[in-house]
Amino acid sequence: MPFSLLGTCVSLEAILVASFILMRQARLARSADERDHLMLQILLLTEKEITAVVQMDRQIAAKVGLTRTATDKDIEELGQKNIDRRSCPDYPGQSRLTVDRRHLFDGQLTQSR
Question: Which 8-state DSSP code applies to residue 87?
């Protein structure tokens, strides 16, 4: 067997390359999970803020005398606090999730009381 040392070297190289590839894939998957979690937090915060803006708009419309706009069912449905009734699949059992601006980039969700 004149090429046994060569075969052993090639096998060792293949094992090392496979190990490096698997480590890189794990790191990429972890960063993708963190990015998805941050996106969830941003979307929850955005929904909360948009809900508050719609509620303020309805109140302004009522004060100005635009009763048809202020009492529109579609706008009223948009102005309901949807975040408070929703549970998050990443955090089973937790409802009324809100995102606190201070923890937005810490990767933490806070539960409102």
Answer: E
Q: Tens of pLDDT along 17-75?
A: 999 999 999 999 999 999 999 999 999 999 888 888 888 888 888 888 888 877 888 77
CA dist 35 and 107 (Å) reads: 10
Look at residue 27 and tell me if it is in a domain. no
* Residues forming a β-bridge with 91: 88
Indicate whether 82 pLDDT > 60.
Answer: no
Contacts of 90 (CB under 8 A, 6+ apart): 37, 40
Residue 54 belongs to a domain: yes
Paired tokens of 48: 């909360």
